Amino acid sequence: MDGKEWGRFPPQSWFDDTPWNFFDVAIEDGKLKAVPVDPQPRKYYFDYRALDISFKSEDLSKTPLSLPDPIPPRAPPAAATLVGSLAAPTLVTTFMPERVAVARPETALVKPLVMLESDKSESRTFMRISGIKLTGIQTTGFEVYLTDDAGAQLMRSSPGFVGTIALFRHDAPVDGVMAGMQHESYDVFDVTRALKNSSQADPGRLHVVIKPFSLADARTSNAQLIEAGSLAFDGVEFFTR
Questions:
Q1: DSSP annotation of 46
Q2: pLDDT, tens digit, 9 for 90 and up, residues 110-133
């Protein structure tokens, strides 16, 4: 299929596994009887035409994207390089935003900012908020911004918006940007676009802003924050890869 390609594959063992059992039916002595069907590996079901399945709008002259066999090995994740860290134990209540200046890692962040001046640069910059602890949080979320104007009225359409703090936490080791660096509970945000949008040559003027918002009300500026919980974290780190 022209212009289509597979994304990231699970391991070969996942495709070779036979997790499902199916049954056909047969008539025996005038009664229906369940007949087991030979189990097939997961990869068998990726070829829908082999299963005699077709679609009304399908162009039968085109060849569907076929699953490679064997599955190509997964490339190891690119190593991440620490370019700046800030130990800043911070408590964010559910009633007002909290701002943390990134002044300490400013020297190390100069290089990523310079690299971002070129649209051809493939380097990306990530921010890790580490040591996250949520207390008494049920109806409040937390938006995260990286901005050069700490006093601005920030919203999700702002160029410095980078994501939200995960409220349902599963802090096991992951295979990704920060693989092999697991210690405490943390969230990682791709801040490449926020850095570029800031047009800020001096990273010492950048701030991380954590803004609480209500999960129970409509997303308006008048939404009431009624919960007395908190978000705490230990520090902020920046990586490039």
A1: G
A2: 666 665 555 555 678 888 888 898
d(CA 56, CA 78): 43
In whole angstroms, what is the distance from residue 128 CA to residue 188 CA?
4
What is the DSSP track for 66-132?
PPPSSPPPPPPPPPPEEEEEEEEEEEEESSS-EEEE--TTHHHHHHHHHHHTSTT----EEEEEES-
DSSP state, 26? E
**d(C-alpha 118, C-alpha 79), whole Å:** 22
**Strand 161-164 vs strand 140-147: parallel, antiparallel, or unpaired?**
antiparallel
CA-to-CA separations, 183 to 89, 131, 189, in angstroms, rounded: 16, 8, 17
Closest to 26 in 3D by CA, of 37, 18, 13: 37
Residue length, the chain? 241
Q: Where are the domains of the chain?
A: 1-75, 81-240
User: Collapsing DSSP states into helix, strand and coil, what is residue 145?
Assistant: strand
Cis amide leading into 70 (omega within 30): yes
Place of tokens 């802003």: 209
b/e for 87-109, b at 16 or more Cβ within 10 A? eeebebebeebbebebebbbebb
Look up residue 15 and give its DSSP letter.
H
pTM (two decimals): 0.59
Pairing verdict, β 140-147 and 23-28: unpaired
Report the distance separating Cα 75 and Cα 147, nearest Å: 34
pLDDT digits (tens, 9 = 90+) for 86-116: 777 888 877 777 777 765 555 556 666 665 5
- Both tokens of 179, joined, read 């693989």
